[in-house]
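Sequence in, structure out. First:
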Amino acid sequence: MSEAPIAYMARTRAWYLALGYDNPYQWAHHQDVPFAPLSQPLRETNVTLITTAAPFQPDKGPQGPGAPYNAAAKFWEVYSGDTAEDHDLRIAHVSIDRKHTSMEDSGTWFPLPLLRRLAGQGLLRLAPRFHGLPTNRSQRHTLDVDVPELLRRVEADGAQAALLVANCPVCHQSLSLAARALERSGVATVVMGCARDIVEHCGVPRLLFSDFPLGNSAGRPGDPASQEETLRLALDLLETATAPRATRVNPQIWPGPPDWKLDYSNPDRLDAAERAARRAEAERARIAAKHARESALS
């Protein structure tokens, strides 16, 4: 079993070609990378949290542990929440690794309670709101609509730094685009992610890479020590990075089966009947998402 990270761009390209989609997705790529160093110590910095997880909607079908992809549970516009309160955010709407991700411990994708505790210890100042950024395959929509709205909210809160916690492959790209825009506006950022190639291909100032299944960018599930170490690594990178494209590798090892990297969207593990079934499933999901988006934005 290779110790190298999953090459998600190549893996997803092969996956969709195998399902009969012959127009491979073009991932965002930038050579230039903006960089905004912290202008004060971390303990004096207002830090916000940015997520692609969706607020739980009890009337929108399965969204809990083990739930399948659920387009009805997606959100299509930037939203915000009070960081002083607890929130029920789910990841049933994204292409996470459902075989190896339990979807039971939100601390692995939404570390707000832990961030609030560290702020209470004086490690940082917590901004009044966190923000949700839609997972959007359209880079133009992300850059022209979602990111400007996110910037307005972050600036209105007086946030000076942001942690962006990614889930699915496109989440990693959307948050990377947001991180670039935030840095250009003077807000220091760290992307916390599991898809290293997508984030580095896009080009970000700081990345904390955890070699875990997608959906666990904030630490291992059911492991508070892992989650705290992961968050502290991200915060330290926020404070100590001196130049863009600073990638820090989380030293933690995923505790699951050693061959988990072979399973995610791997067409070589499907026979013809399974590929046909996955193609039909992908089409249903695509149509459902299209209708949900039209309904939400109408």
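Second:
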Amino acid sequence: MKRSALFTQAKCLSVLSLGACVVFTLAGCDTLNDWLAPDRVNYKAAETAPNLAVPSDLSTADISQRYAAPPAVNTLGSTVARTKTPQGNLTLGVPTDKDPLGMHVEVDGDRRWLVVDGRTPDQVWPQLQEFWAENGFTLKTDSPQTGIMSTDWAENRANIPNDWFRKSIGKLLDFAYSSGTRDMFRTQVDRASDGSTDISVTHSAMEEVLTGQDKTSSKWETRPRNPQLEAVIMQKIMQKFGLTETQSVQLIKQARPAGAKVAVNQSGGTSTLDLAEPFDRAWLRVGLALDRTNFTVDNRNRDKGIYYVHYSDSMADLKKEGLFGKFFSSNTAMPTRQFLVNVKPKADTLTQVGVVDANGQPDTSSDAQRIVSLLHAQLN
């Protein structure tokens, strides 16, 4: 368990009261099974945690005014009338013979996304805004124009064990406790050609690591995304949309396989990828692949098939470990400029992916070709 720097002082102030309280509090210990429950999350109490001072090498990209949410008077549409499922509960999606709950989950490796039948992105957007607010998050990016919604960093207070001291005294000074972790979630909302909406959630995380010989200082480092936590958040979104907990777990377990073969084409010193699937599905999968790399999507234009991305310095302290490091060696400077990842249909069931320059011509730089190689690895 990790506690903040204030914990030592808090413990000293509290020890005089320990004897009077401990007898009454120990009886309420959580069971081990309850603590280990995989879906135990609590971001609602995040405001009790100390403010996170993110070091410069972990700061997120600046968000310009073009990403600002529309004014409150500029609604995205009237409240969507929910429909009844055969089980009797009301759902945001439109039930069909194929999807009696009005939605389903698709999976590609450890990447999942929710498909809501019969609803447009504009119709589900207000529900997603409410979902993140109700669960204790502040939205840092709220852009229905680009279909990108991302939260600020927040602490999962459920990660703080309820040990005997915190149960007896610590509740009085709960701000002195910290899990030593912070989470951020990015939601992508895309329309599909059949009138449904695809919703994906990507987790990013940081962890406070003690440094120095005496372990009195600390720094924040990135840690791997948690696909299981993404699945838990998706379950909670489905419940916000009207499903029961049992139904949401059922859809996660019954996720439908998705994905298509990816071929590499090399011509004129450049590489592109061919995905054997329609543009709608390829657009979604490329966005998910970028979300799970060291690139930040600054903007995207679906009509032009362009993702505007830049390399994120938040991974610099990982010393180029992992998949990205295999493409950018220790002797290669990390790219700093913006790249344009182009997704364009070649046929009804074939889509091409490549990196282009500002004029729409193939980007022949070595960095651009490494990005194509990275996407190939992610999409496979």
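Remark: Residues 7-54+158-176 form one domain.
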